[in-house]
């Protein structure tokens, strides 16, 4: 009875696969899952559920000739992790450790101006873990993502304890700084757990490149400013262009090797690139007169970029399915 | 247009080089071949088998019905044997230079004075 119940639950999960695939492989897969399950198990484990969902998605993409999209995720994940680590190091060097402005009484976090420094340090740790212990990269990115999610609310609470109103929270990280970081982090979750000997150092190298700010001429630093709000547009524009350039360069190298992942890498990095550019555009076209509300522009730009870039990805999957080279739908035939 | 042969794929081909195996047999064999380092789940396994089938490296050998359930056995095709032979021949060729350079690298690190390169 327990076995029947487990079989029914696996059968329900297998609905993630396309119906023709289930008709062809469902019974065989069910048998394999049941054989792999230890005696007495009543329900599929979370790992099994994820395996079925991932496998179903792969089967659907494969039916459309777009299996390479999933294969390209680890490559895009490394680029995203590199960009996230670079931004973390940049904010630490450019904003969090700058003490040129007068204290307004808001509690500070040791050498740093805000608790957001913890999130940026988590991204640097994730880059380090990718280099020395890449098998732990997903938990490390998860922790960094969580720290990034809570950075803004925690800072707002801390700032509310200041003896007077902190006008505009001018040195605190606004939501628009955190949003592209979260997009990069979500993509970074797909970074490979067994990267190559060179690739594993890429995020740490990207973070180290932010040290250039430490040695940059004062005139350039003055232009960038030491506040998130004013520095973010320029930093994001630069990061977006470099990330897109890196995605295209990787696509060219893969393309020369006739690697099917080539076109998908720039399309995947386009999602965080779009958000970085959206924030840049919204801030660059806003005036800073008192009472000006930049939020509608930010929300419009961010939403548009996400819809357009994910739509472009989905449209490419559909087009490849319709016009690209078809995979044999019968799978491994006798 | 292809993607490189990754470790799980290599181990699946290796497992099938001995004899035809069904899904669970392949999972067990890949676990043994990797000393327990790699645990394939069925969704991942059948995704890999689909791809290997598309590439003409693996095909169905025969089917059995055990306790009312379908069990399908897979085997290497001639192309699969060729690919596995080529990869297996390349691995030992690449291993000695890698080991040699790692030794040189380790010796270099030991010889370098602590505290910098100056």
Give an overview in words.
The complex is a heterodimer of chains A (334) and B (118). Chain A is mainly α and 334 residues long. Chain A has helices spanning 2-13, 19-36, 46-63, 67-96, 116-132, 137-160, 175-188, 202-209, 212-215, 218-224, 228-256, 264-284, 295-323. The two termini of chain A are 35 Å apart. By secondary structure, chain B is of the alpha+beta class. Helix content of chain B is 59%, strand content 16%. In chain B, helix 1 (7-18) packs across helix 2 and helix 1 crosses helix 4. Chain B is elongated. Mean pLDDT of chain B is 81; it is low at 114-118. The chains are: A mainly alpha (334), B alpha+beta (118). At the A-B interface, helix 2, helix 3 and helix 4 of A face helix 2, helix 3, strand 2 and strand 3 of B.
Number of helices of chain B: 4
Low-confidence stretches of chain B: 114-118
**Residue share in helix of chain A:** 55-70%
The number of helices of chain A is 13
* Count of β-strands of chain B: 3
Helix content of chain B: 55-70%
Order of helices and strands of chain A: HHHHHHHHHHHHH
What is the averaged pLDDT score of chain A? Answer: 84
Helical/strand content category of chain B:
alpha+beta
SSE run of chain B: HEHHEEH
What integer value in Å does the Rg of chain A equal? 23 Å
- Number-wise, the strands of chain A total 0
Oligomeric state, counting identical vs distinct chains: heterodimer
Structure keywords:
heterodimer; A: 334 residues; mainly alpha; globular; B: 118 residues; alpha+beta; three-stranded antiparallel beta sheet; elongated; disordered C terminus
């Amino acid at each position: 009875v327990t076995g029947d119940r487990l079989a029914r639950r696996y059968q329900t999960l297998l609905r993630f696969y396309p119906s023709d695939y289930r008709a062809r492989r469902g019974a065989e897969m069910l048998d394999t899952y049941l054989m792999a399950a230890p005696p007495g198990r009543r329900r599929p484990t979370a790992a099994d559920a994820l395996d079925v969902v991932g496998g179903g998605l792969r089967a659907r993409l494969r039916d459309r000739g777009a299996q390479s999209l999933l294969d390209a995720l680890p490559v895009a994940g490394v680029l995203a992790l590199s960009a996230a680590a670079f931004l973390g190091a940049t904010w630490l060097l450019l904003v969090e450790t700058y003490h040129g402005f007068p204290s307004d009484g808001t509690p500070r976090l040791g050498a740093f101006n805000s608790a957001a420094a913890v999130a940026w340090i988590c991204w640097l740790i994730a880059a380090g873990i990718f280099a020395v212990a890449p098998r732990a990269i997903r938990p490390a990115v998860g922790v960094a993502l969580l720290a990034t999610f809570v950075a803004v609310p925690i800072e707002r609470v801390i700032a509310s304890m200041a003896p007077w109103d902190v006008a505009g929270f001018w040195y605190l990280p606004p939501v628009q700084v955190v949003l592209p970081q979260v997009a990069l982090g979500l993509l970074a979750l797909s970074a490979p757990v067994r990267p190559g000997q060179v690739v594993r150092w890429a995020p740490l190298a990207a973070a180290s490149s932010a040290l250039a700010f430490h040695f940059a001429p004062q005139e350039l630093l003055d232009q960038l400013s030491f506040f998130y709000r004013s520095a973010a547009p320029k930093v994001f524009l630069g990061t977006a262009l470099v990330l897109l350039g890196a995605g295209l360069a990787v696509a060219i190298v893969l393309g020369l090797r006739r690697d099917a992942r080539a076109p998908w890498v720039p399309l995947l990095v386009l999602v965080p690139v779009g958000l970085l550019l959206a924030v840049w555009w919204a801030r660059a076209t806003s005036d800073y007169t008192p009472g000006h509300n930049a939020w509608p522009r930010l929300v419009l730009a961010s939403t548009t970029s996400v819809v357009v870039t994910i739509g472009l990805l989905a449209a490419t999957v559909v087009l490849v399915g319709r016009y690209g080279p078809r995979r044999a739908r019968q799978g491994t035939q006798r | 247009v292809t993607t490189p042969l990754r470790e799980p794929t290599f181990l699946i081909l290796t497992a099938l080089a001995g004899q035809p195996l069904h899904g669970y047999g392949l999972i067990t064999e890949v676990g043994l071949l990797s000393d327990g380092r790699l645990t394939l789940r069925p969704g991942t396994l059948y995704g890999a088998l689909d791809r290997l089938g598309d590439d003409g490296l693996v095909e169905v050998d025969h089917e059995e019905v055990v306790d009312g359930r379908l069990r399908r056995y897979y085997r290497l095709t001639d192309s699969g044997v060729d690919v596995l032979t080529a990869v297996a021949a390349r691995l030992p060729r690449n291993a000695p230079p890698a080991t040699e350079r790692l030794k040189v690298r380790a010796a270099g690190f030991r010889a370098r004075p602590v505290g910098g390169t100056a």
